[in-house]
Specification:
By secondary structure, this protein is an all-alpha fold. It is built from 13 helices and two strands. It has a two-stranded antiparallel sheet. Helix 9 runs antiparallel to helix 10.
Length: 351
């Protein structure tokens, strides 16, 4: 079996960008609330769960990137991994320097390589980038349904096997570095959902009329209203088995939310703002701690009322910095030695 991807619409591409925007907005709000406003961590757990949307959106985008690269018949793993390397590592190393400056502790080799990064999400997204070509090849051969069943079957078996390990080893295997939502390599599972969605017409091309705009926006608000409490409920701490089951529930919730938006039945409010956040989500995630540390060093402590006001006033400058950082990383990844040769039929990747 060798299915072809449905032709995506601009709406589908904008929607996946906005999904990343929703994810980073919830993450940033959860970090801000738990660090400076409230003492409990309910919002923090919801932010951790919201990252599932980022994995799904990234998987969808990577499926299209790999499709473009394979279109000319001269796919190169070196070029693909070179692109991913310069897209992810320079910004991460810059953020790592900020952590070094704030903590006065030099990063070790594990942190520098991002194998065990201070940002658990960086390690997770690198795992996804490394696995993407293999997942894509299997997906093209097996089709989205067999691919999904096989992938989640393997992840379920790995999670079940991890529970039989000694407690000290199990704690390492089920850490954020290797697992997500208490599922071993669960982040790759969510990433795989996004890749599989790219092969389904319901989430890629609209051949039927879209829902009326007013109704679509109302459905979008209703979908958001259902997503947010679901993230809080499913993201909270639970026992080992309950946490794994909650991870599957989170996969179902985020997949349903994504399909409703990609199918055109619902439209997100504030799409342009969310898309802006989505395009710069990686830099926002990396540099947010450095931003608050820098503001505190300037005397504007975020945990004071005056400091919060100044942090809010300086936020636009921080957003511009993140946009410039993302643009620079994208420019670097497209340098000639990592770009397809002129005249090649394959198109360079997009994020």
């Amino acid at each position: 079996m060798n299915p072809s991807l449905p032709q995506p619409t601009p709406v589908a591409r904008d929607t996946t960008t906005a999904l990343r925007g929703i994810a980073i907005l919830i993450v940033l709000l959860s970090h801000f609330l738990t660090n400076f406003i409230v003492s409990h961590d309910s919002f923090g757990h919801a932010g951790n769960a919201a990252v599932a949307l980022f994995f799904i959106a990234s998987g969808y985008g990577n499926a299209w990137s790999l499709e473009k690269r394979h279109a000319g018949g001269n796919f190169s793993l070196r070029r693909y991994y070179g692109d991913r390397f310069f897209r992810l590592y320079p910004l991460y190393w810059l953020a790592l320097c900020g952590i070094w400056a704030s903590t006065k502790t030099a990063p070790d080799l594990w942190a520098f390589s991002a194998i065990k990064a201070p940002y658990w999400f960086v390690s997770a997204i690198i795992h996804c980038a490394v696995a993407a070509p293999l997942l894509y090849r299997f997906l093209r051969r097996a089709g989205p349904w067999r691919f999904s069943l096989s992938l989640f079957g393997l992840l379920a078996a790995a999670t079940a096997g991890a529970t039989a390990l000694p407690e000290d080893i199990r704690a390492i295997v089920l850490s954020n570095t290797i697992s997500y939502r208490n599922i071993v390599l669960g982040h790759i599972g969510f990433f795989g959902i996004g890749m599989a969605l790219a092969f389904l017409p319901v989430a890629g091309s609209q051949t039927r009329p879209a829902t009326a705009p007013l109704r679509a926006k109302a459905l979008g608000l209703l979908a958001l209203a259902g997503l947010l409490p679901g993230l809080v409920l499913l993201g909270g701490p639970k026992g080992q088995l309950a946490a794994s089951l909650a991870g599957l529930g989170l996969a179902a919730l985020c997949t349903a939310f994504t399909v409703v938006l990609l199918s055109g039945k619902a439209q997100l409010p504030w799409t342009r703002g969310l898309a802006f956040l989505g395009r710069n989500s990686y830099a926002l995630y990396l540099f947010e701690p450095n931003y608050f540390w820098a503001m505190a060093r300037l005397g504007f402590n975020p945990w004071t009322r005056t400091g919060l006001v100044w942090c809010a006033l300086a936020a636009p400058a921080f957003l511009v910095f993140c946009q410039l950082a993302e643009s620079s990383a994208a420019w670097l990844s497209r340098r000639p030695m990592f770009r397809f040769k002129p005249g090649s039929d394959a198109a360079p990747s997009t994020r």
